[in-house]
Amino acid sequence: MLKAIFLDMDETLCATSVADRKALATLKCYVESQFSTLNADVFCQRYIAGIYKQLNNEFPQLVALLDNELLFRQTLIQTLFSQQQITLSFEQAVTIQAAFDDGRMAGFDFFPEVKAMLAMLRQHYKLVVITNGPIFSQHPKLAATGMDQYVDHIIIGGEEPEEKPALSIFKKALDLVECEPSDVLHMGDSLAADIAGANRAGITSVWVDTGKASDHDKLSQITPSYIVTQPQQLLNVIAQHFV
Questions:
Q1: Hey, which residues does 130 pair with through a beta bridge?
Q2: Which of 92, 131, 97 shows the shortest CA–CA distance to 26?
Q3: Cis omega (within 30 of 0) for bond into 165
Q4: What backbone phi and psi angles, to 5 degrees, belong to 168?
């Protein structure tokens, strides 16, 4: 019997990629206005790749800073400027990072219909958000959406010993709602983090397929229980298989 639902936040409940695009537009305008010799398009493209850890092999010296995500991003900005032969003070990097963060939070919100879905689900089930990510970025997102008004519990990976797909973070969620794995389903957009983690914990998994090639490449190794393309389709999964 379904008693609780675990939910990822970024790109599952909330349109993080939309907020990223708005933040990058804000960032580009800011750096163009301040640094006339900077190729702002190249900087912005590499910055977003860097914060999603796609440049770690290129910049191994920055990997040591990952325990402090904010410092990592600020130092990444300095490094990317240096690649364009522009010397940037740390204080300037702090200001540039703040421009991105402010733009991101201004555009961060739920996907359409998700708030109504959460309100409907909460009438029948305990809801737990399990989100990976650093405290400094996840707390503002949660505040921007008023997430605590829509769910019963929130677990931030950056505050835990391990993030998804670790069994420990799913075990914590199970303990919070006092449920067995068979009483729960988990929905998320990442095959590697959400679906592999839920499967390992014995929890029914619902994958939000956002069309990313990197996830589709993993489908032969990681099999979700159900696949949806929009988060509100979770209601159909529940109606067809759990009611």
A1: 155
A2: 97
A3: yes
A4: -60, -35
User: If you average pLDDT over residues 215-228, what whole number do you get?
Assistant: 94
pLDDT tens, residue by residue, 68-100 = 999 999 999 999 999 999 999 999 999 999 999
CA distance 228 to 25: 30
CA distance 197 to 202: 9
Given a cut of 90, whether residue 12 has pLDDT beyond it is yes
What is the Cα–Cα distance from 133 to 226, expressed in whole angstroms? Answer: 25
Task: Label residues 22-55 b or e (16+ Cβ within 10 Å = b).
Answer: bbbebbbebbeeebeebebeebbebbbebbeeeb
Question: For residues 105 and 139, is the Cβ–Cβ distance under 8 A?
Answer: no
CA angle 103, 105, 107 (to 5 degrees): 75
How much is the pLDDT for 214? Answer: 85
Residue pair 51/45 in contact by the 8 Å Cβ criterion? no
Average pLDDT, stretch 32-55?
96
Could you report how far apart the first and last alpha carbons of the chain are, in Å?
9
